[in-house]
């Protein structure tokens, strides 16, 4: 019988030892790496969930990077806005309370400082976050505003703000009366009229009131162009009697001239001498009005004109001006007024072509429907007035400057010239209001049209020959010009534009204050600077209903709150997802170390047993001797 050697490699015992050795090697690798396996197949059945969790973790990491980048952008933008607010606050305070003494340059110290502050504002508005210009909207590689020098002084053939202000000043009148025409139609009467119906320049008659006795008749404003008449009666007015005229100024403010009858000769300031006859009194009134209008035109109007020129240069606002139209009340012909009705019989104060029930006027896509009576919402009664229609249009456009009618000319105002569009299903009736088939606003920047400028009667688009102060990209929703996804279902908007009202109004106010220069020795210079300073202080003060820098910062704060909440949710999700990955792919080093110790003990025993077995031979079991 053959005797085979003892072999352990293929035996069950040998295989068990080899398995223990393999396990020890695997556990040693796990202890060194912290991972269950170096292959997906070795991770177990839960690895599919772990792979999906890793994908979600990668997305969360990307969202976190986006949140960090957006927060950095917003923080830089907020710092810039805070600096802008601080600078304009200093200019506002200086304009309101600073010295108004005029230096040899024709400006106050506050105005000179404003020029330096303007350069700082331009630098702030051209701030970059990384390689992105913050206040340029979606034009991230383009500076948001032109240089301070170009804005003020122009560039080449393109006019700057100073030239626009100078041209507007000429258009508002060089005769000293603000383009008013002062006459005496009869020896005992005085007439005050605008020089051209529908002109945007000079002083505009708003109202007149009188306590003049002696049979004095005061009428207007009426006619085209608008005029006021003061006709003294058969007897003189009494000392203390007054007449007051109120004017609309180019920048939307008003000013009044009030004269008081006096027996003194010469009369006190703001008065006129009662003569021995109504004819002499009328002459004295005419002289006093001439002086008062001259003072108003050379002080208040100068400042208001500069401010309005700033609007022409900086603002997106515009106007649509109709032609002179008359009502049906003639003869003689009479221009329509705010009281003129939108339909009526021949010979009545109604527009020349009636609106009828069912007609519509569509304003920026919103229809106004005419009804016979009982109008509600966006409806008008056919018998409503022109002023009611203008108010309805203004409520749709949201203009901050009410539309007007003067001398038979309607002027529609809009804060955004690009958006104004008015049409009507009754083109003839719209024509009776002085407009063509489609009404659109004149696009800014606006420049005085005509030569000589002193007799100009209209503004024109000046984009071809005027510096474009804003050089970024414009969007109806500036925040939407930059957006980032910070969560699978959340996108935040964080764009900004230097031409937003809250920013633009501050830049405009400082620039206009810095731009006006007066004669150092002029008789009216001090009053001109005082008027401009008062307007600057007001215009740089946040106004109700208008966007402010704080409003922009509030939008940014809302975006940061959304990001903070999203980040908190993502942190929780990240923890849970990481747990899934860890439970599937990682091991407990303490548990693995314990298993290794157990295996080492088992292997040690196995190797000892193997050693004992390997030492066994047949001769050890054969009897000794024969």
Summarize the structure.
The chain is α+β, with helices and mostly antiparallel strands. The chain has 13 helices and 22 strands.
Textual characterization of the structure:
With 626 residues, this protein is α+β, with helices and mostly antiparallel strands. It folds into four domains: 1-34 and 588-626; 58-145 and 470-569, f41 fragment of flagellin, N-terminal domain (Up-down Bundle); 180-297, no CATH class; 319-443, no CATH class. The protein is 40% helix and 16% strand. The strands form seven sheets. The chain has a five-stranded mixed sheet. A four-stranded antiparallel sheet has the order 3-4-7-6, covered by helices on one side. It has a four-stranded mixed sheet with strand order 5-8-9-10, covered by helices on one side. Helix 2 runs parallel beside helix 10, helix 2 (47-97) packs antiparallel against helix 12 and helix 3 (109-125) packs antiparallel against helix 10 (501-515). The two termini are 20 Å apart.
